[in-house]
Automatic annotation (TrEMBL):
Domain Thioesterase as annotated: residue spans: 56-130
Keywords, in A-Z order: Hydrolase
MF (Gene Ontology): acyl-CoA hydrolase activity
Pfam family, one: 4HBT
Keyword set includes Cell inner membrane: no
Protein name: Uncharacterized domain 1-containing protein
SUPFAM superfamilies: Thioesterase/thiol ester dehydrase-isomerase (SSF54637)
Protein source organism: Rhizorhabdus histidinilytica
InterPro entries: HotDog_dom_sf, PAAI_dom, Thioestr_dom
Amino acid sequence: MTSSFPPLQFDLDGLAAFIDGSFPARARPALGQLVALAPGHARLRLDPDEDMVRPGGIVSGPVLMGLVDVAAWAAVLAHAGPVAMAVTHSLNMAFLRACAVAPVIADARLLKLGRRLATIDVRLWQDSEDRLVAQSTVGYALP
């Protein structure tokens, strides 16, 4: 299957370094780490710590939304190149089940990448891709 997206502008290490350099160092642990990259797809992993837990002993919604946003941004940047000012214009999130304090995987897949707008589907899961924690549709505006 061929990709309908432009070629990747980064390899995994290059994109990870760009993301790391775009955020303050102390914020990075809460935003996940890039672990895989392919045309139309970026995968991040978050290892939550006690600062990310809400009452009830689960990972908080704002932490999960941050992970989703960075995963979507990574999928866009992978094809658009080093465009730090690509910005979120919409983020719709459905929380499907409680997120345990355990590794969380974010799979971001480009649905559409235009000259000015991108739409990304991001799915969060733990243990199995079949048991989603959350699903999000993210829109990005490109400069």
